Amino acid sequence: MVPGSKRPLVAISSCLLGENVRYDGRHKRDPCIAQYLSTHVDWKPVCPEVGAGLGVPRPAIQLVGTEERPAALGVENSSLEVTEALLEYAQRMLPELRDVNGYVFKSRSPSCGLVDTPLFDSSGQELAQTAGLFARVIVAALPALPVIDEQQLHDTQRRARFLQQVQACWQQQKSAGS
Ligand code: SF4
User: Fold this and answer.
1) Given ligand 1 and candidates 61, 75, 111, 134, which is best to mutate, with the most ligand atoms within 8 Å of its CB?
2) pLDDT digit string (tens) for 95-112?
3) With a 6 A CB cut-off, is 107 part of the ligand 1 pocket?
4) Is the dihedral of CA 54, 128, 157, 175 positive or negative?
5) What is the model's pLDDT at position 3?
6) What range defines the domain where residue 67 resides?
């Protein structure tokens, strides 16, 4: 919660707000977010790959392995591994994220994806869809936090339900602090 703010605080994958933090130095601004959510919440932008020190631009990564233990490896060079860097950053961010009232994640990202990030075997065959490394730590550690990804946000009912959950989380936080 931003002190004195009249709106909930929601964390978001910062590329969705238009920040040029992707591996290729570009963004993935989503007009739905600006149109429907920016009038209701204050944002806390987070880019785990930049936060973990991977830089911009940087080599693209992908998830390789099993659903229980995926690794984040370079797409072009599989000897590049950033699994520990992303997991450590997620642990470092947990104290800051305990105060937010929701989280909007970027779908299909090896770091931020909630449910639909491709998981490959070592030969490049897609095995399944799963959560990104950063998102899975946050969701496991903060099970009551309302979460959604930008694909799910395009569904009117899911978006409305997410906003209700965010508002409820915010009210609860205010009551606990008063
Ligand atoms: S790590 Fe997350 S916030 Fe950063 S560019 Fe990738 S999807 Fe966007």
Assistant:
1) 111
2) 999 999 999 999 999 999
3) no
4) negative
5) 62
6) 9-171
